[in-house]
Each structure stands twice: as structure tokens, then as C-alpha cells.
Design brief:
5 helices; 8 strands; 4-stranded antiparallel β-sheet; 2 domains; globular; alpha+beta; Dna Ligase, domain 1; Glycoprotein, Type 4 Pilin; 31% helix
Length: 195
């Protein structure tokens, strides 16, 4: 799934949506067939390596081009953890796009079984219990490399105590292909010079 042309198209689409919201010209998006098929993305914004917004879709329920565009705008303006992005921040805000594989259910006997099955650095995990649902992208393993800490923090994100477990807990896993704006700095700069 690591397709550089697709990554360039997704980064340009995400960055372009945010730029357009501030009245700036959008980056030229090179056509890619995957943009016209359903896809699920998360768009992560960072400033100096720190999270500035992250919103996404767990299921492919709309065309990939639309999904990444809407998630970029939501990450910039609707992440409840942050104030909406303002124009002076554009120059220091970078974009990362994660393209999710379809999630697959993981049948586990209990939390210890789940912890033993996890692949740190690879698995994105979704925990669900009743109406509560939360996910961590595989990138979160970078800051929470211990499986017990990872799952504990994910349970807290879902509004549950870190030491809570229920036989009713549903677990799914997925992987991502991810691209960062810095990987395409030369192409984006060349496109901007043409605008």
C-alpha cells in the first residue's frame, strides 16, 4: 500500500483543503485512480513535532479524495482538543495522512490474550464497548511502546478506566500506509511556485 504517487496526491489534497479555507490557492493534485474509490483516512496536523489536530474515518464510507479533504478540515478546525487553526499557524503546521486498511475483528479471551496478540508499531486498534469507541493509529506506539500502556491509554480515551476489562469488549485491528508532508516538500514547493 506504500505508493508514493498516492501519498503525494493525499498530502496535496489535505494541505490544499486547509490552504483553501484560508483563501490561499490549492496545491495541484496529480490524478490517482485510488482517489475515486472509497477509502478511510486520518489526517494528523503537527507543529514542531507536537500534535495540533487529528481526525479521521475508521471505515471507507466515501470517496478517498472527499474523505481526506473533510478529515483535513476537521483536524484543522474541529478537533475538540484544540482551538481552530489560525492563518499565522499555517507556516509551521505540517500534514500527515494515514490510509487505513479495512479493520478486522480480533477475538480475544481477555485482556492478557489481547496484549499477547498485539504487534507494536504495526497494529492500529479499535476498542468498542456499548456506545464507547476509541482508536489509536499505529503511530501511537512511538509514544506508548508497551502494549499494556497502549491499551490502558486507549481505554481511557474511550472513557473507561485503564484497568477495566469486560467480556463484551470488541477489538479490531488495522494497518496504515502513512505519508508526511516533509516527504513531498520539493514537489509541493514546485507546485506553489507555479501558482
Amino acid at each position: 500500500m506504500d505508493d508514493r504517487d498516492l501519498g503525494a496526491a493525499l498530502i496535496a489534497t489535505a494541505r490544499g483543503a486547509i490552504d483553501a479555507a484560508f483563501g490561499r490557492p490549492e496545491a495541484r493534485v496529480r490524478p490517482h485512480a485510488a482517489l475515486d474509490r472509497p477509502g478511510a483516512t486520518f489526517v494528523t496536523l503537527k507543529q514542531d513535532g507536537e500534535l495540533r489536530g487529528c481526525i479521521g474515518s475508521l471505515e471507507a464510507h466515501r470517496l478517498l479524495a472527499i474523505d481526506v479533504r473533510r478529515n483535513a478540515l476537521a483536524a484543522a478546525f474541529s478537533d475538540p482538543r484544540f482551538a481552530p487553526l489560525v492563518a499565522p499557524e499555517l507556516a509551521v503546521t505540517t500534514v500527515e495522512v494515514s490510509l487505513l486498511s479495512p479493520a478486522s475483528r480480533v477475538e480475544v479471551a481477555d485482556e492478557e490474550d489481547l496484549l499477547a496478540r498485539l504487534e507494536p508499531g504495526v497494529d492500529g486498534i479499535v476498542l468498542e464497548l456499548g456506545r464507547r469507541r476509541a482508536t489509536f493509529l499505529p503511530q501511537v506506539w512511538e509514544s506508548l511502546p508497551d502494549p499494556r500502556d497502549f491499551i490502558g491509554a486507549l481505554k481511557r480515551k474511550a472513557g473507561m478506566p485503564a484497568n477495566f476489562w469486560s467480556a463484551e469488549m470488541r477489538v479490531s485491528r488495522y494497518t496504515v500506509a502513512k505519508w508526511q508532508q516533509a516527504e513531498f516538500a520539493t514537489e509541493l514547493a514546485a507546485d506553489e511556485a507555479k501558482r
